[in-house]
């Protein structure tokens, strides 16, 4: 880890130094190392906030290299906003975190991502929908982004994991803290199948004020946000608001008009969010966006089994009927039909008149 990164990590770990204060200090002092070595009176004038100033003075007593060594021991990566590995979608938002703590891995394929959020006190209907949407979108190559909270968020992560897909949890605390505590096993599974990320340093507690700011990262990492269940004062509506400001798509799942848990989502629909009742409604939204459509296709092909891929490649050459495919695959009709059903479900092929099949992407 180079010196610039070590000092940048140190500065980001100072209490109350958020993205705006961090940027202000770097703009003035030109580097985090210069902040660390700055004259105290000059620093006080630049910060213009006595609490933040005192926190930086306290942090100056800490050896930045010791904190970096701890991060290394706990296998926590830190991405600066200028790093090549920093998520491209997140970098686009106007208040992107200058520093992102990552436990697990963020991949280039995670650019094809969808956030699924909703109420902590979810109904059985909401939980079922969250897991179903997550599972199906994962099968189509989407990385599922959520906040690892109770209820809708947890089921969104679980659906992606069940599908063998990737998922990213954005925390409102340090990545070394499990919150809520009952999600310890889920957090381990998320790290194994994606990543947990946060702009907050290690040991930073899950304070109530952290979560609204956290929500801008959930939407910032995603092409769109699906709100499954939300009351009128739900934090999920904050995520939807950030999504709109960031130019992301907003989808809402309708609910009973008499349910308090659906008042927020139903209101989003009245305000213009796209009403969705299946994952197909979401995929349909991207049918006319060739760049995203191509990425969905590429992601899907990468997730195919060797047998599915062989069958798909046979159909890519030209439309084929079942007899031709049985001959090519050297499998019983029942197995070829099973593989065809899988490719149809994933949207990679379509059935033509005469029981022929062809690829669905141009």
Automatic annotation (TrEMBL):
Gene3D superfamilies: 3.40.50.450. Residues 302-355 form the DprA winged helix domain. It comes from the Bacteria. Residues 77-286 form the Smf/DprA SLOG domain. SUPFAM superfamilies: MCP/YpsA-like (SSF102405), RuvA domain 2-like (SSF47781). Pfam families: DNA_processg_A, WHD_DprA. This is DNA protecting protein DprA. It comes from Thermoanaerobacterium thermosaccharolyticum (strain ATCC 7956 / DSM 571 / NCIMB 9385 / NCA 3814 / NCTC 13789 / WDCM 00135 / 2032). The lineage of its organism: Bacteria, Bacillati, Bacillota, Clostridia, Thermoanaerobacterales.
């Amino acid at each position: 880890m180079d010196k610039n990164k070590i000092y940048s990590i140190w500065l980001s770990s100072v209490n109350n130094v958020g993205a705006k204060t961090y940027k202000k200090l770097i703009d003035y002092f030109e580097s985090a190392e210069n902040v660390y070595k700055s004259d105290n009176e000059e620093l006080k004038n630049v910060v213009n906030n006595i609490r933040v100033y005192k926190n930086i003075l306290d942090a100056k007593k800490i050896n930045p290299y010791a904190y970096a060594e701890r991060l290394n021991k706990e296998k926590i990566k830190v991405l600066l906003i200028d790093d090549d590995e920093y998520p491209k979608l997140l970098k686009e938002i106007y208040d992107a975190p200058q520093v992102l703590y990552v436990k697990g891995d963020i991949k280039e394929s995670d650019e094809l991502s969808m956030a699924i959020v909703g109420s902590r006190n979810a109904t059985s209907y909401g939980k079922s929908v969250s897991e179903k949407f997550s599972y199906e979108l994962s099968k189509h190559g989407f990385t599922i982004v959520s906040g690892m909270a109770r209820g809708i968020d947890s089921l969104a992560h679980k659906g992606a994991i069940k599908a063998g897909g990737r998922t990213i949890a954005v925390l409102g605390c340090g990545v070394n803290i499990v919150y809520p505590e009952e999600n310890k096993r889920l957090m381990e599974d998320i790290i194994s199948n994606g990543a947990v990320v946060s702009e907050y340093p290690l040991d930073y507690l899950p304070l109530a004020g952290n979560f609204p700011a956290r929500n801008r990262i959930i939407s910032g990492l995603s092409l769109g946000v699906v709100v499954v269940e939300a009351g009128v004062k739900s934090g999920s509506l904050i995520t939807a608001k950030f999504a709109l400001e960031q130019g992301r798509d907003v989808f809402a799942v309708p609910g009973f008009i008499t349910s308090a848990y659906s008042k927020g989502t139903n209101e989003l629909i009245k305000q213009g969010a796209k009403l969705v009742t299946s994952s197909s409604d979401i995929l349909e939204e991207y049918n006319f966006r060739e760049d995203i459509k191509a990425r969905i296709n590429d992601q899907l092909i990468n997730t195919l089994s060797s047998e599915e891929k062989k069958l798909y490649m046979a159909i890519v050459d030209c439309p084929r009927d079942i007899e031709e495919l049985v001959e090519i695959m050297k499998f019983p009709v029942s197995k070829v039909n099973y593989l065809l059903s899988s490719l149809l479900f994933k949207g990679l092929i379509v059935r033509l008149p005469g029981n022929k099949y062809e690829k669905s992407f141009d």
